[in-house]
Amino acid sequence: MPTSEDMNDLVRAVATSGDRQAFAVLFKHFAPRVATYLVRGGVPEPLAEELAQETMVALWRKAASFDPTRAGVSTWLFTIARNLRIDRHRRRGDEDRPGPLDEDGDDSVDPAPWPDESLATAQRERRIRHALGRLSPEQSLILQLSYFADKPHASIARELRIPLGTVKSRIRLAMNNLRRLIDTPQP
Amino acid sequence: MIRHHPDEALLAALAAGTLPRGADVVVAAHAERCPHCQARLRELDAVGGALLEDAEPAVLSPEALARTLARIDAAPAKAAADVAPAASDVSAARLQASLPDGMTWPRSLRGAAATRWRWLGPGMRWSRVTLADDRAANVFLLRIAAGKSLPVHSHRGIELTQVLYGTFHDGRARFGAGDFDEADDSIHHQPVVEAGGECICLASVEGHVAFDGRVARVLGALVGM
């Protein structure tokens, strides 16, 4: 499986030379995961595949503005897929209006040099992923639901039959534990 | 210096994309001028990225990649400049022209409409903000003169406030420009603007606000709470 640094390089290849092979590798890895994210959020399957494709089209178009010092490819794609999901909700709520302006509409960014901070970002994201696997089942579930279920905390509370305050405090605890695990040197 | 930030659960909901629109623009208005919360959001986004990375891959149709490449070939990227400013921006622009020097209009309100300042009580004005993509969201601006106080009120829902300009004290703490406040049904408060100058806040309310007194009832009726 490609590392996150490999993924960064693939996006760079898409940005600088429209490299379709690089794009195909990114697609194979991420499109099925983005589709899962959307399906778990209640998007029907054919549409989820459609939106996963749209997410990857956005990757192609925005590749030049990808900044690996800020986020890894998976984080960047998560935010793109999330924004597409939100836009879809909003459009459904008000059909005649054009979709909202793209949140990071400034695509005219020069491809940045690949500074060393991207390594620190990649390492930090690796640690977050590793730490997620070490949370208690309860805290892991609350983050899964919070990010993937596309439901406000109040709905999650009803579903789990716990008070809203408990949902919030579990999220706080989960994030505190994540931070503690991230800052602890890896074994 | 910013002292009051959105709670972790609120920021996590912003990162997950599950906040109601009204709350979303107020929390985003805070984050856009708070480097501390921007760093927290980057971390919360990275949690989303890690969850995505760990997600079980779905089975896509065999032509999914070919179709995506066809879409890329079919429509070159739209020029960013082809989006005309929405008509609603004009009304917001009028309101912005009336703002004190040094106050920045939140980027999160891009595309939103705002009414002119309306009288609410002595030294108290408000503007109803209408979001282009959720016209029912209860979002408004309050502009309170130096030394004046807001009506005492409590909430049945959650009230989020971002201080855009000036300073108020609500008996619990002091809130200055850039500060964020979340008040729920346990809080019965009366914000008082400091003597030095006026205060402008962006607020959203989920659920209803229960005001005490006449001016307060007028506000409640006007804002539709």
Helices, strands, pairings?
The complex is a heterodimer of chains A (187) and B (225).
Chain A: H1 4-17, H2 20-40, H3 45-62, H4 73-93, H5 117-132, H6 137-148, H7 153-160, H8 164-183
Helix pairs in contact in A: 1-2, 2-3, 2-4, 3-4, 5-8, 6-8, 7-8
Chain B: H1 8-16, H2 21-31, H3 35-54, H4 64-74, H5 87-97, E1 113-114, E2 118-121, E3 124-131, E4 134-144, E5 153-155, E6 159-165, E7 168-169, E8 174-175, E9 180-183, E10 188-189, E11 192-193, E12 199-205, E13 209-211, H6 214-223
Description:
The complex is a heterodimer of chains A (187) and B (225). Chain A has 187 residues and is mostly helical. The longest helix of chain A has 21 residues, at 20-40. Chain A is flat, with a radius of gyration of 18 Å. Chain A has helices at residues 4-17, 20-40, 45-62, 73-93, 117-132, 137-148, 153-160, 164-183. Residues 94-115 of chain A have low confidence and may be disordered. In chain A, helix 2 packs across helix 4 (73-93) and helix 6 (137-148) packs across helix 8. Chain B is of the alpha+beta class and 225 residues long. In chain B, the strands form three sheets. In chain B, strands 1, 2, 3, 4, 6, 9 and 12 form a seven-stranded antiparallel sheet that branches. A three-stranded antiparallel sheet of chain B has the order 10-5-13. A three-stranded antiparallel sheet of chain B has the order 8-7-11, with no helix packed on it. In chain B, helix 1 (8-16) crosses helix 3 (35-54). The longest helix of chain B is centred in the N-terminal third of the chain and has 20 residues, at 35-54. The two termini of chain B are 32 Å apart. At the A-B interface, helix 2, helix 3, helix 4, helix 5 and helix 6 of A face helix 1, helix 3 and helix 4 of B.
